[in-house]
Design goal:
Blueprint (H helix, E strand, L loop, with lengths): L3 H23 L2 H19 L7 H26 L24 H7 L2 H20 L2 H12 L4 H8 L3 H21 L5
Helix pairs in contact: 1-2, 1-3, 1-6, 2-3, 3-7, 5-8, 6-7, 6-8, 7-8
């Protein structure tokens, strides 16, 4: 059974990665924060008695299900109420701040020229745009495997599909990202 401090430490360590993953799915910072908060509450409420080793996969599954529930609510709400404000596109203002990705910004600022820094931020923006353009299942498989660093079996368990499907989704995601980023001159 996970202690309160182990649970709190787990949630603190997962917060940024989980937020970023959710933001990639829903493309709305406020919604991503709400989904993340709901998922954390569900984990604490229903699964606090589980061993700490089981928490990562449980949390990933809860987060995936909560995100799917959000999409279902949006679809239902969209079918019942048409709000023209929902169809506006955002130009990036007020969106997720890429500067939060850096673990230690003061260290990078000292060793990096302004030109290199701007280039790095632009590259991150291109990568983020390419990841967000992936189909939902490919994006989920890619983020779980390479962002969350889960193995194929864990990813399959979180996504509720076979290991073969995970491999297919990841392969297609990598091909699509390679093509999209290659067009912009970004090579591995």
């Amino acid at each position: 059974m996970a202690s309160d401090s182990e649970l709190a430490d787990f949630l603190k360590n997962m917060e940024k990665k989980a937020f970023k993953r959710t933001f990639y799915h829903v493309r709305n910072e406020d919604a991503a924060l709400d989904i993340l908060q709901d998922s954390m509450i569900k984990l604490c409420t229903h699964y606090a008695d589980k061993p700490s080793a089981e928490l990562p996969l449980l949390f990933q599954r809860i987060l995936s299900n909560t995100t799917l529930d959000w999409f279902r609510r949006q679809k239902t709400r969209g079918a019942l109420f048409t709000n023209l404000g929902d169809f506006k596109t955002t130009d990036g203002d007020g969106e997720f701040d890429l500067l939060e990705v850096s673990n230690n910004p003061s260290e990078n600022a000292v060793s990096e020229s302004a030109e290199d820094w701007v280039g790095r931020v632009q590259t991150l923006e291109h990568i983020e745009t390419a990841v967000m353009a992936l189909p939902a299942r490919q994006r989920e498989a890619f983020l779980l495997r390479y962002w969350e660093e889960h193995d194929v079996a864990q990813t399959a368990a979180v996504m509720g599909c076979s290991e073969g499907s995970v491999k297919t989704h990841c392969s297609r995601a990598i091909q699509a990202l390679s093509k999209a980023l290659g067009i912009q001159g970004i090579r591995p």
